[in-house]
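Incident log entry.

Two folding requests arrived from the same account within the same minute. Monitoring flagged them as a possible duplicate submission, but the sequences differ. Recording both here for audit purposes.

Request one:
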Amino acid sequence: MTDDAPRRLLIVEDDARLAATLAESFLRRGYQVQVAAREAGALETARRHPPTHAIVDLKLAEGSGLGVVQGLAARDPQTRIVVLTGFAAISTAVEAIKLGATQYLAKPATAREIEAAFGHRAGEALPEIEAPQTGLREQEWELIQRTLAEADFNISEAARRLGLHRRTLARKLAARREGGEAD
């Protein structure tokens, strides 16, 4: 794949909020993004919109993340597949790699970590995570969005996890919605 070739990403995640957060992050990074929540839907989406990259949740409510990995790798062995899981285990990591995954990461993983994992080749050391090309405010916004999703969009809980006062977080969210910046 050349550097100017379109990067088509398939996100297979049954947590709609996490899928939306990942989709937004990768859209900003220049990827064309498709999202699926089930194994069957993911494989159908891949048939209609063949991905160059995929992020696959290991445990899906309907179907298997490993089944998705196997199906994607069978369709195109060049697809860069990163498996995400909240239940990391050596046995499933080995199985995912055998089935065609590029890398296996424990949740939570940042978009930068996932993108670095796309560049991993079997038998090589993990690539260095490059310095962010986004500004500090953009990194802060990604952290806020990820923390909000993890806290089920409870602003008080997200503020506690971020070490912010609830009103400060609410002000930052309001400023972002309005297109401004909050300090």
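Request two (distinct sequence, not a duplicate):
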Amino acid sequence: MTPTPSDPRLPAGPDTIAVHTDLNCSFAHVAVHRLHVTRRRLGLEGRLWFDFRAFPLELFNEEVNARPGVDSEIAVLGALEPEAGWRLWQGPDWAYPVTTLPALEAVHAAKAQGWHASEQLDRALRRAFWAENRCISLRHVILEVAGATGAVDVAALAAALDSGSARADVMAQFRAARHGKVVCSPHIFLHDGTDSANPGITARWVNGDFGVGYPVIDADHPEVYEDLLTKAAALAGL
């Protein structure tokens, strides 16, 4: 792939990795966990950053990301990375998140406070949903999760959410990802145009599609994350 300076899928600088995901995607939960773990192991924390971009499944599919499909993935994906944090939904059905758009918007809004704030909020919101069964559709839950990170100015985030200052950018990320330009959640892009969709994992559905059948992992190569981060570090001269 030959990148162009105007390609909206790519990170703005070589020290940043663009990570296109949704927050209620189990494959993305695995990917984000592996990104953080690998970056720490390589000694690149504070030197190489993750720019989380919105890949809102509810807009692509024009429906709620169905709980039966999400539940069917937990045991399979959880077995790949149990330390990421997983639990079947324990709350009532009416408390299950119907949208991730406010949370995706919050992650983008937090970038105004720096990459670290945005990264920490993204990771905390994922854990709030997957491991703690919290309804991350709700404003007060998003702000509570943000406060618990210790990295986010909650008052500034609340003002951004209330003004909708990040909403247009989230929708622009969705438009940039359409028509197969971003294949799935997760899809990672480096500054030179290198990309990897659902890195290292090959999966298929058995006995029906998402929400009916269940996923089978045919291959899992987590070492691809070291390859991606090492290449990103080289591009950044680290």
